[in-house]
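Intended use. Records like the one below are meant for learning the mapping from a protein sequence to its folded structure. Do not use them to infer anything beyond what is encoded.
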Amino acid sequence: MPTSNDATPTELDVRIWRGGEDGAYAHYRVPFRESQTVLDVVTFVQRHLDSTLSYRFACRVGMCGSCAMTVNGAPRWTCRTHVSKVAEDGVITIGPLRNLPVIKDLACDMTEFFEKWQRAKGRFSPTRSRREPFERISPETPKRKAVDAGIECINCGVCYSACEVVSLRRDYLGPAALNRAWTLVNDTRDAEHDARIAAVSGDAGCHNCHSHQSCVDHCPKQLSPTASIAGLKRASVGAAWRRLTGR
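Structure written out for the chain above:
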């Protein structure tokens, strides 16, 4: 890799996935710049080297999560990932997220990810109408604290891409959907508590989590889907016990 006189790299060797599921990595030479992000690198390739490169991004500041890709083997937000932190001897390999069908290049089909969100009943169902006053919930209650611990998920798909169970079982709901279900199970305003517990307790639900912690290790928001899933496991067992005992 070319370098300047003070050994600072002047170029990066960038390998980017091109094509669909049966594609391959293409090589590009990209100028190295101070404070450069991986998204900057991808954008340079698309704007200056190959305008046919497909990828997603929106906010560029870590708010939307749409720029998530696999960088040197790990799922990351590319807008918040600095080249200086991940480049290995000036080499960066960028691919689409794992565990999702590839549409083209770095763009994945998120349909199954959001369909699993629906299967886990990840939508709030109110117990009150809009004509009734808002329910007041103390932020100090245990249930509200459980909600707060997982509510910041923005559906970027990084945890889903990192999950080994999803790789082995494509019907597994995945950490993001189960984390969302846990926040709603603890929302005292929600009307679908029992139906939601039933939805996440099935064959592809929370009990299939092996607690590998990959979702925790890679979550850009520092959430713990594993802790949420453990809570669902306890709630599921409790619901089964109440059905059996009538208590």
